[in-house]
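Cross-check.
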Amino acid sequence: QVQLVESGGGLVQAGGSLRLSCAASGRTDSTNTMAWFRQAPGKKREFAAAISWILGITYYADSVKGRFTISRDNAKNTAYLQMNNLQPEDTAVYYCAASSRPFYSIVPNFGPAEFGFWGQGTQVTVSA
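Predicted model, tokenized:
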């Protein structure tokens, strides 16, 4: 019912920046919370950042706080993840996710199970 398509991944040098985009379509009126997760090889999927679609309130994992910024353009049904000062440990497949649950009912427990819709993922590789 909600389709998510990520883009913007790529290869960058440590200290560099990337901006990821997540275009949402379908029944986006049922989406209350958007988030970015990431999964490195051999690791569990971990939360990176979340945003309330209507209110714009954000929440970040400690690992990305101060370096990543999540935002959204309501008119374009698109969420973004601006990633600055990227480090090799940021290397992962980044997934956009959407939840029908209100932001305030999830924070701070942004686990993958709270999100019912997922994009296909986009690879981010940071070289040392």
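The longest strand covers residues 18-26. Residues 38 and 94 are 4 Å apart (CA to CA). Passed to J.P. for a second look.
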